[in-house]
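During the no-cost extension, the postdoctoral fellow (Dr. R.K.) reprocessed legacy sequence entries with the updated structure-token encoder. One reprocessed record is reproduced below for audit purposes.
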Amino acid sequence: MHGEFPKQFLAKARGSTRRTLSIALILIVILAALYYVFAGPAAQQRRAGRLAAEGPVPVLVAPVTRADVPVYLDAVGTIKALNTVTVRPQVDGKLLSVNFKEGDDVKKGDVLAKIDPVIYQAQLDQAIAKKAQDEAQLANSKIDLARYEKLAATAAINKQQADTQRALVAQNTALVQADQAAIDNARAMLGYTTITAPLDGRTGIRMVDEGNLVRAADVTSAIVVLTQLRPISVLFNLPQQELSQLNAAVAKGPLHVEAQRSDTDAVIDRGLLKVVDNQVDQTTGTVKLKAEFPNADLQLWPGQFVNIRLLIDTLKQVVVIPTGAVQRGPNGTFVYVIKDDNTVAVRPITVQKQDETQTVVRSGLEANERVVTTGFVRLTDGSKVSIGTADALPAQPERGQTRGGQKRARGSNAPPPSAPQ
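Re-encoded structure tokens follow.
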């Protein structure tokens, strides 16, 4: 029994030694990792980067200027032909010919199609013959009336015979007038066999082919749709909240409208506002407007969607800076102003109007000052800066932009490194 005790003691000692060695190895690995992080090549690289970042902050600047700034109301408009006519037959018959090509530009009065005129020519000839017959009877009755009036004056015949003959003359006169009306009607029906363009415009796709029978009573049948493309109109809506300034602008004179491409905002055409609707749509809270464009190059097409800019005012000689210079912090909007010693000062400003490219400053800046537009990462109040060009400025993520270069939405409240207090 006394021999077993030393063996147990030795086994426990060996187990304790193995645990001690394991703990020592773990500590050595941790210390090596800490050394690599804080004193190794990675740490040296970071220190080198910090040293390289010291010194003036490279920035781009822009001058504060005064300029006339137009004020626009933006909307999405739908192109609509100024006039659209569905050309239908006004008489029944066989379609003899179609005298246009699909997509042709036609003038008012151009022949578009012809319907077989034989029946209507015969009706006209019949009406003319009937009138000639009734005119002969009228002439004879007038001769008899003159004879009866002379005899009645000498009491050779009863006066009643003269009165009866006078009534017959009136009856024949009415017949001749009815015949003339029948002739006019027959001539009109004959004229309807030649279908002409009612206005200047462009033809669409032909809806019926030569040789088919067409009927005036069939409201679904049509030969072609004719649209007037020059000029052309655009319908768009504006919120009712903008109605007061819109009416004030309309009272001063005609308002100019620009139609823009939806992808590049390039101006397609310029026109004038023609109509402001006389009521607000209660379901949408918007008012409908109509503008007219010359469309000389046919860049606007019926059914097309375009961006609309309505010029309602022009701000005269206001303070303007690039929108990229405007920063936002907990205390509002501000800019970094370049001082004479090439240091920056945080300057709170009041924005009057802003779009994607320029900002109108109501207060806080004066013309001929300079503001920072690029290079905000390391800027703080009083930072020394070096002013460079766009090519020389090192690439760095700007505040107000994502890493992919997309600007954050205007109005983002992310605070800058140093906001004005």
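Residues 161 and 308 are 82 Å apart (CA to CA). The chain has three domains: 55-63+326-421, 73-81+231-314, 83-224. The remaining legacy entries will be reprocessed before the final report is submitted.
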